[in-house]
Structures are given as structure tokens and as C-alpha cells.
Design brief:
heterodimer; A: alpha+beta; D-Maltodextrin-Binding Protein, domain 2; six-stranded mixed sheet; 9 strands; 47% helix; globular; B: mainly alpha; MetI-like fold; 73% helix; MetI-like (chain B)
């Protein structure tokens, strides 16, 4: 029967196409842009690889919130660390972004530009004074007005070094280098004394290294990169010197943080950046290294260390904006950040929290020594990673740096090319 | 006696023409959703400047023009082509020799057949990481070389050695799979042919070239086609050996790695990555046609 066939064909096509057309629809029924309404309803909260270690903490936190605001229900989802940005991309493109999302500043920028992050200056500006000034500002996007996430926890890492390798090279293990130039001198000395067998650094310089060396990374308007200036060229030239002297590991051009961490564990490199979490790892996996571990401040030539900021973004298309804002604030308020900091080696971004005796008094253990030193350095820390610096830009910089280290082009040419490529990507981001 | 009227029989008869469609519907839906739609979507996107969070606009052939001036695209094309040239001959020949070796029914041969097949079922990420540990500057292979008095080799730091190491892993992992295909083909080669050739005085090598190879030629073509498509689309092995940046200065990047790097993340250039995907598709189809054409020429 032609009619029934045609009807069936239309139905089949509709069945095929309709679910697919929903894929890119996004949320068209955005909720209120301010948080002044009643705190009620169901919201979804997404964290970044935290369930495995902190499940009881978050379950307790959610129960407390639901008790404080009857009529609310928080669904907690956790995503693995690997591919987190891709997961957010898929959710954002599919209109299924959770109401409250754990983000870093570089993840917020594209979401804010796409109109998916709530401007907290407008929706929750009254909370700004509760946070450290620098932490609140870390989720501002150059070229845009507003702040797009609550600052959550901060982190900064000490620099670990292998005292026995320092000793072998005739360097004083109790006087570790503190600035880049001191690191470079020590690295060349170690390479020379060990006949090139021991490298000091395992990674090529990143954008944060350029920042901590004192290189201006972007212009004031945030419209162009500037790390190809004389200071940037000087830094890359010194790294090239290290690479040629085998003071920079020969596999540095393809290294990842994980691979360089392993090199440090096996004594193949003398220094490696890390966090307070690494100490337990050293104790368990490399007891000999642990006996010889030296801990010093992050290397910086500006006097300011780098800090990593985690934030909680509120989905601008949430249908439960008051509840989402209230929950994001609840998780990041001083009391809850403090209790989270006691669970794991992170630091609160709330004003005054770093003056708590927990962050100022040592008890003689390495753990508290690292914690107190890190908390102290965080007070003047800077988030050197430009919020607009995307993964693609990191790859461009890394590749050009590698070409310079291999001698395929001069440091100046390499940085000029990197800046050109990053500027092009910046323009394409819109 | 007239046959009793079955209630609803007329309705059933009327629905019959649609029945094949109903049976095919699940398959059609799956094919449409996971093959046809992504394919058409990629094709459409390749003519736009779409980004992850921005729908983008029609830009004509701009993405393809940009490809022509993108050094990394040419690097990717070079590496993917080299991968085909390095891997395919090995995967056509070595599994055949392995199949000949394990074809004989001698005691304990099942163990060897299983052992050769094991890498096929192992996760590529796991075996890739094991190979990375083996080939590290301070890994097992270099330690052995040093014990023998040789200098360590930069398997994972030299651009060409990284590619060669990845090819080795691909060949090692694929041997068992293609060996099974060859074993099935060899089982159909009449024993009489070998016996007749032996009576005529043909040695093992001559019997291999004049009896075995012609008999399994169509299987060799199949293996060449399958392995060349897989080799051109290589991702995991090179990603694990060369790291996310694609080796020193990205010199080991393959086309699929470039698609992943360009098109993913919150700032991914979906339009441009789609254009690279279209090129990968065209080259893959061309490779298949080339292999099949070579086979037809040989046959005629």
C-alpha cells in the first residue's frame, strides 16, 4: 500500500532525525540571570576527579546544603581528570551542562564567551569581599566585563630536589637554587660533574615558566601575546644551553608531567616541581629518594610563585539559578573551604583563611613544612597562565620551543612564530 | 466448510509491506545515528568555521585552502603515508610466515597459536605503555645495549626512531590477527598441490612462491587493504610513543592526531578538523581502490 509505505518512511526518517536534531539544540529556556529568587529545586553539581578520594566529604556537604535549604536536591556527578575539557565541551554543545561545574580559569573563558557562564559580579557580587582579591579576579576574562566563577581552592607546588645528586656534583644540598639563573648554573654544574648522565630539569619551559622568569605574556588589553620579547628570548636561549649540555633531559621535548615525575622518582633528574601530595608517593614508591628529598620554593625570578586556581562556575542556562548560586557559594565559603583543606593539601581562596594556625604553625613534619611554606608563598602568588591560553596554544608554544632547542631555528624565530600562531588562534576564538 | 475468519487478519496483511522496514529499522537507526549522520555532519562542517561552542558560518573551501599552507598538515600526511609504507608490507608478509609456522599439527602448537594471538586482545594503551617502559632511555632495551657495550639509543626522543618504534608496536600487535586470517586461507589450499610440486622437485621456497602465495593471494589483498586503512588512520601507538604533542616539535604527528588536537577541547576548531578528516577519508578510499585495482590488474 503506497500510502502506508510513505507514512512509514516519513515516520522512520522522523524517528532517525529527531533524536539527532536534539543533539545540538542547546538550552533555549534559560533560567533567571540573578540569584535573588527562592533557593529550591533540583540541581546538578559536577566535580573534577574528586569522588575517588573525597566521597564522604562531598556527600556530607550536599546533605548539609539540602538540610539548610529544604526543597533542594543536589545530584553530584564526578568526571575523570583525563578528557575533562572534552566532557564539558560535549555537555556545553549538547545543552546538558550541569548547573554548577568545577572549572579552571582557562576552561571558563570559552564558556563565558559562549554565554554559558553566569556573570557573578551581577548575580552574586555581594560575595566578592569574602574571597582573596586575586582569587576572585582569576575568573575574569580579558575583553569581557564580569567574573565567571566562584574561586574555590588554590594550589601551588614546592620544588623537590634530590640532595644526593646535588652532593655528588659538589653543590651544597642545603642551599638549593631559588631563581631561574641559579637553577641554570646548578644544572650545568651537575651535568658537567656527571658527564651528562644526570639532567636537572625534565621539561621544556611552559608559559608559566616565561611568566615566572619575568616575561610579559600578553598586552594589557589581552588582545595579543608578547612573550617573544628580549627576556623571553633570553630564557629560551638558556634552556637551549641546558639542552646542549644534557642538563635538560634528552626526552624533555616529548615529556609529560607524569613522565618527568617518574624520571625524578628513578633519580634520572635532579629537580622536579610537585605538590605536597607527592611526599606520600615518594615515601611509598622511592624510599631511598625520600631519605634524600630536598624541598624548596617554586623557582621564580619575579618574587611571585605561580598559583593554580580551581573555581565553581554556575551555568547561565540553569533553570535553578538561585539554588545553583547558593550551592556554589556554600561549597566555596570560608568554613567549607577550610574543612576541605584539612582533608587534602589544598589552600582556601577565602580572605583570612591562610592566617589560620593550620597554615602558619609547623609541627616538625615535612608535610606541615611544605604546607606552611606554600601558604606563605600563596599570599603573593600570581596565576601566570593567561585565561585565554588554550590547549592548542600550549601545543604551538611547545613545538616552537622544541625547534629552538633542536637548533632548527633561533630562539627569537621560535618565539616570534609561537606568538604569531597564538595570536592567530586568539583571533579565531573571537 | 468455510475457513473461520481470523480477527485482525486484514490488518496484518495490510501491514506486511512495511515489515521489512520494521526489521531493518534498528540497524538503520544505528547506522544512521553513528555512521551516516557523523559522516554527513563532518562533510558539512568542513565547509564552515565551526568551533566547539560556536556554530560557525559557511566559508566555502577556506579550510582546504588553509590546509595547503599548514606545515603541520603536511607533516601529518607525510607521517601517515610513511606509516602505511612501513607497516603494510610487514603485516602482509610476516603473519603469512607465522601462519605457515603454526599451521602444522605438532604437539604444543596450540600454545604458540594462542601466544601469538595474545597481543591482539591486549589493550593498546597497556601494551603501548609497556613498550614505552622498554624503550625508555633507561629502559630494558637500552640497559641491555649498555651491557653489551653500546651507547643508549634515543628510541623515544628521536623523531624517526619514535615513528619506527610505533610501527614496531603496530606490527607486533597485528601479527596474531592477520595470522588467523591466513590460517583460514591456508586450510583451503589443497595438499595435493604441494605434493605435486614436491614430486616435481620444488623446494620449500619455490613451493611457497608458486603454490602458497598464489593460493592465498586474495587474502593477501584483503590484509593489504585492511592494514593500509588502519595504518593510515593510526593514532594510539604514535600518541603513546610520541606523547600528546606528537614528538619533538610535533614532528611525529599523524593526520588523525592532528584531527584530535585541532578539533577537541572547548576552543576546538571543528570546521578545520573536519576538513582534515575529509582528506583522511578521501585518501583512505583511494588506498582501498589502489589495492583492489592492483589486484585486478594482477588477475587479468
Amino acid at each position: 500500500m503506497p500510502t502506508s509505505r510513505r507514512t512509514f518512511a516519513v515516520a522512520a526518517v522522523a524517528a532517525l532525525v529527531l533524536p539527532l536534531s536534539a543533539c545540538g539544540s542547546g538550552g533555549d529556556g534559560a533560567g533567571p540571570a540573578d540569584a535573588s529568587g527562592k533557593v529550591e529545586g533540583d540541581i546538578t553539581f559536577q566535580t573534577w576527579n574528586l569522588r575517588a578520594n573525597f566521597k564522604p566529604y562531598f556527600e556530607g556537604l550536599i546533605a548539609d546544603f539540602e538540610k539548610k535549604y529544604p526543597g533542594t536536591e543536589v545530584k553530584w556527578v564526578d568526571q575523570p581528570g583525563e578528557g575533562y575539557a572534552d566532557k564539558i565541551s560535549a555537555d556545553a554543545a549538547g545543552g546538558t551542562l550541569p548547573d554548577v561545574v568545577n572549572v579552571s580559569p582557562d576552561l571558563v573563558a570559552p564558556l563565558a564567551k559562549a554565554g554559558l557562564a553566569l556573570d557573578l559580579d551581577k548575580a552574586a557580587g555581594q560575595y566578592e569581599k569574602e574571597y582573596l582579591e586575586g582569587a576572585w579576579a582569576s575568573h575574569r576574562i580579558p575583553g569581557m566585563d564580569g567574573t565567571y566563577a566562584f574561586p574555590w581552592y588554590l594550589n601551588t607546588g614546592p620544588l623537590f630536589y634530590n640532595k644526593s645528586l646535588f652532593d655528588k656534583a659538589g653543590l651544597d644540598p642545603e642551599q638549593p637554587p631559588r631563581t631561574y639563573d641559579e637553577v641554570f648554573d646548578a644544572a650545568l654544574r651537575i651535568a658537567e660533574k656527571t658527564g651528562g648522565d644526570t639532567a636537572t630539569l625534565a621539561n621544556v619551559p611552559t608559559i608559566e615558566d616565561f611568566g615566572r622568569y619575568g616575561v610579559p605574556l600578553m598586552n594589557e588589553e589581552g588582545t595579543a601575546f608578547t612573550f617573544n620579547d628580549a627576556k623571553g628570548v633570553q630564557l629560551l636561549t638558556r634552556y637551549k644551553e641546558l639542552y646542549e649540555a644534557k642538563a635538560l633531559d634528552s626526552q624533555a621535548l616529548t615529556a609529560t608531567p607524569e613522565s618527568s615525575g617518574k624520571k625524578f622518582l628513578t633519580g634520572a633528574v635532579a629537580m622536579n616541581p610537585g605538590s605536597a601530595l607527592d611526599l606520600a608517593n615518594f615515601k611509598k614508591q622511592a624510599p631511598n629518594l625520600y631519605k634524600n628529598i630536598g624541598i624548596t620554593d617554586q623557582i621564580t625570578s619575579t618574587g611571585h610563585v605561580n598559583m593554580y586556581v580551581m573555581g565553581l562556575m554556575v551555568n547561565a542556562q540553569s533553570r535553578r539559578t538561585p539554588a545553583a548560586v547558593a550551592f556554589a557559594h556554600f561549597v566555596t565559603d570560608a568554613a567549607h573551604q577550610m574543612s576541605f583543606a584539612k582533608q587534602v593539601a589544598i589552600f582556601p581562596s577565602t580572605a583570612g583563611s591562610l592566617d589560620d594556625p593550620y597554615f602558619t604553625k609547623e609541627d616538625g613534619t615535612d608535610e606541615t613544612r611544605v604546607r606552611v611554606a606554600a601558604a606563605k608563598s600563596l599570599k603573593g602568588a600570581v596565576n601566570y597562565t593567561p585565561v585565554l591560553f588554550s590547549e592548542q596554544m600550549k601545543t604551538e608554544l611547545r613545538n616552537e620551543v622544541a625547534k629552538a632547542l633542536q637548533g632548527k631555528q633561533s630562539p627569537q624565530e621560535a618565539l616570534d612564530n609561537a606568538v604569531k600562531a597564538c595570536d592567530r588562534l586568539l583571533q579565531q576564538q573571537g | 466448510m468455510a475457513s473461520p475468519t481470523v480477527p485482525g487478519a486484514r490488518r496484518v496483511r495490510r501491514q506486511l509491506p512495511s515489515s521489512p522496514w520494521l526489521f531493518a529499522a534498528p540497524g538503520l537507526l544505528i547506522t544512521g545515528a553513528f555512521i551516516l549522520y557523523p559522516f554527513v555532519s563532518t562533510l558539512v562542517n568542513s565547509f564552515t568555521d565551526r568551533r566547539t561552542l560556536v556554530p560557525g558560518e559557511y566559508v566555502g573551501l577556506d579550510n582546504f585552502r588553509e590546509l595547503l599552507h599548514d606545515d603541520m598538515f603536511w607533516t601529518g600526511l607525510r607521517n601517515s603515508t610513511l606509516y602505511v609504507l612501513g607497516v603494510v608490507p610487514a603485516l602482509v608478509l610476516l603473519p603469512l610466515l607465522l601462519a605457515l609456522l603454526v599451521q602444522k599439527n605438532i604437539p604444543g602448537i596450540t600454545f604458540f597459536r594462542s601466544a601469538f594471538y595474545t597481543p591482539v586482545v591486549a589493550s593498546i594503551v597497556v601494551v603501548g605503555l609497556i613498550w614505552v617502559w622498554l624503550l625508555d632511555e633507561r629502559g630494558l632495551v637500552n640497559s641491555l645495549l649498555e651491557t653489551l657495550g653500546a651507547s643508549p639509543v634515543g628510541f623515544l626522543s628521536d623523531q624517526w626512531l619514535i615513528l619506527l618504534s610505533a610501527m614496531t608496536v603496530t606490527v607486533w600487535k597485528g601479527l596474531g590477527y592477520y595470522m588467523i586470517i591466513y590460517l583460514a586461507a591456508l586450510a583451503n589450499v589443497p595438499r595435493e598441490l604441494h605434493e605435486a610440486a614436491a614430486v616435481d622437485g620444488a623446494g620449500a621456497v619455490r613451493r611457497f612462491l608458486t603454490v602458497t602465495v598464489p593460493a592465498v593471494r586474495s587474502t593477501m589483498v584483503l590484509v593489504a587493504a585492511l592494514s593500509s586503512v588502519a595504518a593510515f588512520k593510526v593514532f594510539s601507538e604514535v600518541y603513546l610513543m610520541a606523547g600528546p604533542s606528537g614528538g619533538p616539535a610535533g614532528e611525529d604527528t599523524t593526520l588523525v592526531m592532528l584531527v584530535q588536537r585541532t578539533g577537541t577541547g572547548l576552543t576546538g576548531r571543528v570546521g578545520y578538523a573536519s576538513a582534515i578528516s575529509v582528506v583522511v577519508f578521501v585518501v583512505t578510499v583511494a588506498l582501498m581502490l589502489l589495492v583492489l585495482r592492483a589486484d585486478r590488474k594482477e588477475e587479468s
